[in-house]
Amino acid sequence: MKILEITGGTKLSGTIRISGAKNSAVALIPAAILADSKTTICNIPEITDTDNLCEILNHLGVVTKRASESIIIDPSNIKNNEIDEEYSKKLRASYYFMGALLGKYKKVVMYFPGGCSIGARPIDLHLKGFEALGAKVHIEGNKYTVEAEKLVGCPIYLDFASVGATINIMLAAVKAEGKTTIDNAAKEPEIVNVATFLNNMGAHITGAGTSTIKIEGVKHLHGCFHEVIPDRIEAGTYIIIGSLCGDNLKIDNIIPEHLDSLISKLQEIGAKLEIGPDYIIISKGENYKTTNIKTAPYPGFPTDLQQPFITLLTQCSGESKVEETIFENRFMNVPYLCQMGSDISIRNQTATIIGPNKLKGKEVVATDLRAGASLVAAALVADGKTMITNVEHILRGYENIVEKLTQVGAKIKSREI
Ligand code: EPZ
């Protein structure tokens, strides 16, 4: 098992360059099979999630070639093989192969495990969208068989602005006959990135980034060249770290507009940010004030930054509250932050944080990706050494996190135990 050893207390200076967005890349890679010819996607982060998706592509007979941060995907000899659980259980985003294979072949058979540590995470909205397009869904345990004589575009309303359902329905609808409208669609920037990719292939999608997306089905899609947008959650994580222990720490290659909710919350507590066209420079501030957070679909405060932000709130003077409205179990970092010396209590879906509290290095566990990020942030400001186990969770979503932090002065190393 991999662990991280971090000795806190150093100021971080220099530049951290943000990688391509995990939550865009994990949809773009499956979407590439919709094309009849070769696609090149650049700025793909080198993380285990993208590696695992390429394994699934290879299982389908799709040739992939990684060239540093680009992937060349050639689906010309693809086979519509069943996707076994050994593949799909490695990451939840494997469910994008449902929409892509249904859209391409009108049939997909894949084994898909439910849930994960942060919540039940059902896919009922995805399946409802597929059925609305004319597919029949048969579920036997973890085995999903989704097939249709033909897919016919139609109006689809999402009961919740689900990111995954919005993208998966788009993937199934791009080659359906006629027009599909997705109402109450999610508006995350990653959805715009996927829609742009599909349009570069020859799809006709309008409205991505708004709550109403229109898709005019087409017969063929061709390969193209595409670029992954910068990862706003990776960027937000390092900006939060900079507000905890930065000294003119530059977070480079970002789209500041994608971080508006975080930036306004940081300004509320008194953080000093210099905001450039594609970077933010941040230093540790003094006497941070408290603030309250309520997570919401984009452009609201992102649930993926709630956990790292709680670490920052442990250093604010007074009482702050964080309400998590998206996932039912997304405070698993809190017991470990309390072990490190913070004062946090949870009631229903709201955490109350009283600070500031000096944190002390401890042995802690990364229970999920963003909980792990929260503990890395805490370890960087804690007195002494922190050992974080289960760091596979962290390496899934943060490309080269040890190298990126080391190069700006952090005392961090990873080792096998
Ligand atoms: C995406 O998950 C992201 N993952 C998550 O990031 C992110 O937290 C989430 O969107 C919200 O922004 C990827 O993009 C790979 P949802 P997704 O569908 O698509 C419920 C990270 O840390 N729901 O918007 O699964 C669901 O249970 C990860 O990078 C249904 O009930 O999120 C949850 O409570 C974590 N039925 C809520 O909606 C459905 O059919 C949000 O889910 C689908 C979702």
Care to describe what's here?
- The chain has helices at residues 22-31, 48-59, 85-88, 96-105, 124-132, 163-173, 189-200, 232-245, 260-269, 303-313, 334-339, 369-381, 392-395, 401-406, and strands spanning 2-7, 12-17, 39-42, 63-67, 70-74, 107-111, 136-140, 143-147, 155-157, 179-183, 204-206, 212-216, 225-227, 246-252, 272-275, 279-283, 292-294, 318-323, 343-347, 350-355, 363-365, 385-389, 411-416.
- It folds into 2 domains: 2-19 and 230-416, Enolpyruvate transferase domain (UDP-n-acetylglucosamine1-carboxyvinyl-transferase, Chain, Alpha-beta prism); 22-227, Enolpyruvate transferase domain (UDP-n-acetylglucosamine1-carboxyvinyl-transferase, Chain).
- With 417 residues, the chain is an alpha+beta fold.
- The model has no long low-confidence stretch (mean pLDDT 96).
- Strands 21-22-1-23 form a 4-stranded mixed sheet.
- Bound molecules: ligand EPZ.
- Ligand EPZ binds next to helix 1, helix 5, helix 6, helix 10 and helix 12.
- The site of ligand EPZ has 25 residues, from helix 1, helix 5, helix 6, helix 10 and helix 12.
